[in-house]
Design brief:
Structural class: mainly alpha
Distance between the termini: 22 Å
Number of helices: 7
Order of helices and strands: HEHHHEHHH
Number of strands: 2
Shape: globular
Length: about 190
């Protein structure tokens, strides 16, 4: 097993736990049946977190040459990003509730939305910083703020402060489209 496989395996464990947490939380909600007051924002948050995990994992296959030259500090950045992604996905849906308690997804989202978007922003910052750092150090690339992906930062920052349900729904729809379309039609063989 080479360096790429070691890095991918360790980080994949963290991301696998994140997907498991989302799946378990969704199972608990579905099992609670009528005790759940459903709303669309928390499930959309879980969907976006899931898609973010999948696109993160999928994108690693395109950077194998970078991973071979990654430094310890960069590796810590990659691990930090994975832990932030786990925390983001864990915040999306409520944890276990007492057996007869009502589960209110509107109240849950109100309570966690700011934390969700802060984690989302932190993950975005760490991932982009480590990616730019690796490309500049390993490939000699030059840093440029003119990349379209950097427009996500101000959008996510707005979601930390703007708690308007319509704005958040619109942004979730856009992020879903972005993550689904990012690798649509690609295979691992490229």
């Amino acid at each position: 097993m080479g360096p790429f496989e070691y890095l991918l395996l360790f980080v994949a464990v963290i991301l696998g736990l994140a997907v498991s947490d989302v799946a378990i939380s969704l199972h608990r909600l579905l099992s609670a049946g009528r005790r759940v007051r459903w709303d669309w924002l928390a499930p959309l948050a879980a969907l976006v977190a899931f898609l973010k995990i999948v696109t993160q994992w999928w994108s690693w296959f395109g950077v194998e040459r970078l991973v071979r030259a990654i430094t310890w500090e960069m590796f810590l950045g990659v691990l930090s990003g994975s832990v932030l992604l786990f925390l983001l996905s864990a915040a999306a849906l409520p944890d276990e509730a007492p057996p007869e308690a009502q589960i209110d997804l509107v109240a849950h989202w109100r309570a966690v939305s700011r934390r969700y978007w802060i984690l989302f922003l932190a993950h975005w910052l760490v991932t982009n910083a480590v990616g730019a750092w690796a490309q500049m150090q390993i490939e000699g690339a030059h840093f440029s703020l003119l990349q379209p992906g950097y427009l996500l930062g101000p959008l996510i920052l707005s979601l930390v402060f703007i708690r308007n349900r319509a704005w958040q729904t619109l942004c979730f729809a856009g992020l879903t489209a972005l993550y689904v379309g990012q690798f649509f039609g690609q295979s691992l063989g490229r």
